[in-house]
Amino acid sequence: MSSAAPIYCFDTSALIEWWVRHYPPDLVPGLVPRMEALIASGRAIVPSFVLGELEVGGDELSKWAKAQPGFARMETEPVQLMARDLLRSYRRPGKKTKGINNADPFVIAMGAQTAACIVVTAEKDGSDANPKIPYVCKEVGVECIRFIDMWRREGWRLA
Fold it and tell me: What is residue 50's three-state secondary structure?
């Protein structure tokens, strides 16, 4: 890993894990300003497809994510091309719950195409038969961690 401060590319599942499942703002309010500062510094990003996935919930997380300037990034041509290749290699057509789908290939590709970037997801490891984000990241050489690991790397301590 380079000495530059990492950039984190978040999967939808990591944001839901934070906001809805484990560390909601009403219980851990100190995470919101820390995440907003990370976004404002350009160190937390999502492909625009992640906002689309969050819209399905139409909840406060979706509203918050949309309101963060610079958080959602349009997918560049290299990201789009890599996402296409990832879908060809790691999607399991006909098996809706198997393989990468929706925003997954764009998260991985954006992580791969962004210098000093680490993908953040709540997905389990996966396998060749059922490749999930961590499995595919390992295959293509992109570091992948969970939300709480990002929190630790940043040295966040909340009282």
Answer: helix
Q: Which of 103, 118, 100, 27 is nearest to 65 (CA)?
A: 103
- What number of other Cβ atoms are within 10 A of residue 127's Cβ? 10
pLDDT tens, position by position, 85-112: 999 988 877 666 677 888 999 999 999 9
* 66 membership: H or E segment, kind and range: helix 60-66
Q: Is residue 1 part of a domain?
A: no
Residue 138 lies in a domain: yes
Does a structural domain hold residue 19? yes
pLDDT tens-digit readout, 20-58: 999 999 999 999 999 999 999 999 999 999 999 999 877
Domain of 112 in residue numbering reads as 7-153
Of 71, 4, 6, the residue nearest 35 (C-alpha): 71
For the chain, the domain total comes to 1
Question: Looking at the domain assignment, is residue 41 inside a domain?
Answer: yes
Query: Bridge partners of 101?
Result: none
Q: Tokens in use for 142?
A: 């992109």
CATH number of the domain to which 144 belongs: 3.40.50.1010
